């Protein structure tokens, strides 16, 4: 890569302050910088603080799980990290690049599978992946091979020529993983990547990501509500509740701290107080109410 970030450099961002333009950059990404450093990260929706002064450091090559109940602030954190939301306080650097100063450079280093399905249903599977390859600057000479191998890795070679509107939910999820991987990202961000997948597809997805991590030094940041996935695949996890990080450590350490034979489910309950946010006006319960209203509307 031919760009020079300022290793580890962060500057405080203020709400409403325009992000600096992506100017010309030269040099190389530092080999020493952590994959992600968040410091004092804060975001509010109106008067509700969804992310409250979060400090987070993820090292290169780690698979890091951000866990927490509905409404904890995981997706909001991820959207700031992936440049989609501007933080109202605090700083983020990704592989030594200040996200506020060089958002486009950060985007090129990231593969992102959002929580909500995002593939274009009116295109074929292959066209969706090709679109991402172009968007993320995969060199023209490599595009064909990279698109085909990303499709093959996700078991989508055969249906690749079909329109995505004919895909099942699980196939769309796998397609989105192919999209996220086509630019060989240094940081892969997965927001509930396996929701809706059958057990075999879930295992396939994780095994593929684990194999990729062994071949490259790709860092993975993921959220999941499946504690077995976090336990098996994460080197470290952070438990988030009501906008704050309550505990960070390896699954083994967090379980051991709770006592002999503790499970990750018990760790989750211990730090987050159950599965629904206790703030009835925001977070989990409100989300559930909203989902039920939508379900009724759709009949
Ligand atoms: N666009 C928005 N407008 C207003 N409030 C929002 C918006 N997006 C999120 N919130 C609120 O911010 C809080 C954090 O939401 P977020 O989506 O980050 O939670 P999460 O941890 O990802 O939850 P889940 O596990 O359900 O995906 C919740 O209370 C949510 O209702
Ligand atoms: Mg979420």
How would you describe this protein?
The protein is of the alpha/beta class and 299 residues long. The protein has a domain at 61-72 and 105-277: P-loop containing nucleotide triphosphate hydrolases (Rossmann fold, 3-Layer(aba) Sandwich). It is 36% helix and 20% strand. It has 10 helices and 10 strands. The strands form 2 sheets. Strands 6-7-8-3-9-10 form a 6-stranded mixed sheet, with helices on both faces. The chain has a 4-stranded antiparallel sheet with strand order 2-1-4-5, with helices on one face. A hairpin with a 2-residue loop joins strand 1 (36-45) and strand 2. It is globular and about 50 Å long. The chain starts with 35 loop residues before the first strand and ends with a helix. Residues 1-30 and 275-299 have low confidence and may be disordered. The structure holds adenosine-5'-triphosphate (ATP) and magnesium ion (MG). Residues 74-75, 115, 191 line the site of magnesium ion.
Radius of gyration over alpha carbons? 19 Å
Mean pLDDT level: 82
CATH superfamily of the domain at 61-72 and 105-277: P-loop containing nucleotide triphosphate hydrolases
**Main beta sheet strand tally, sense and closure:** 6 strands, mixed
Q: What percent of residues are in strands?
A: 15-25%
Helix and strand content put the structural class at alpha/beta
The rounded distance between the terminal residues' Cα atoms is 51 Å
